[in-house]
Specification:
Layout: H1 12-20, E1 24-29, H2 43-59, E2 65-67, H3 90-106, E3 111-116, H4 122-135, E4 139-144, H5 150-153, H6 168-177
Length: 179
């Protein structure tokens, strides 16, 4: 049986063991917003958590890792005119992320990798990182799952040059992660 990597699937004792092993906490952050007529509003959250789970399961044999509960709401004001969107304002988004990080820290973890799945979150995350370093003792890094494999994805694309909103990449990934 594969090692459990999802925070929500572990016991308190299991999480203490992960912290004692200096596990890296992966914190998925997504969004809840429209994705055209063909995709559900939870695409960014579903894909980010799915990518984080798959990466953690692959790494678990070599590196202690745990995937924190997904922050499913992000910066999506630009989608509010469309159906199904939730959004935070900047102070609320910062406060929610800081609360997650402080909870992670209080449970004995020291390393956090925030994996972003929504382009609208990127600028805020980049602005918050220095604050998070000052306001916690955590080592916090952030990346977008869609940024990491750009060179690998490019040759596979038929109708676009990169990952875009409700695009062939997001649609294809949804067919794998949540068919």
């Amino acid at each position: 049986m594969a090692e459990r990597v999802m925070w929500k699937e572990l016991t308190a004792e299991g999480l203490r063991a992960k912290a004692a092993a200096d596990a890296i906490v992966i914190l998925p952050v997504g969004s809840m917003e429209q994705h055209g007529p063909h995709l559900p509003v939870g695409v960014d959250t579903i894909l980010t958590e799915g990518v984080c789970r798959a990466a953690a399961e692959q790494a678990a044999g070599d590196v202690p890792v745990v995937v924190a509960p997904t922050v499913w709401c992000g910066m999506a004001e630009h989608h509010m005119a469309f159906g199904g969107t939730f959004t935070f304002d900047i102070p609320t988004y910062r406060a929610v992320l800081l609360a997650f990080l402080r909870s992670i820290e209080r449970h004995g973890f020291s390393r956090v990798l925030i994996i972003n799945g929504h382009g609208g979150n990127t600028a805020a995350l980049n602005a918050f990182l220095p604050d998070f370093a000052r306001e916690t003792r955590l080592r916090v890094f952030a990346a977008g799952y869609f940024d990491l494999p750009r060179t690998d994805i490019a040759p596979l694309l038929e109708d676009q040059k990169g990952v875009q909103h409700a695009c062939e990449v997001e649609t294809s990934l949804m067919m794998v992660v949540a068919p």
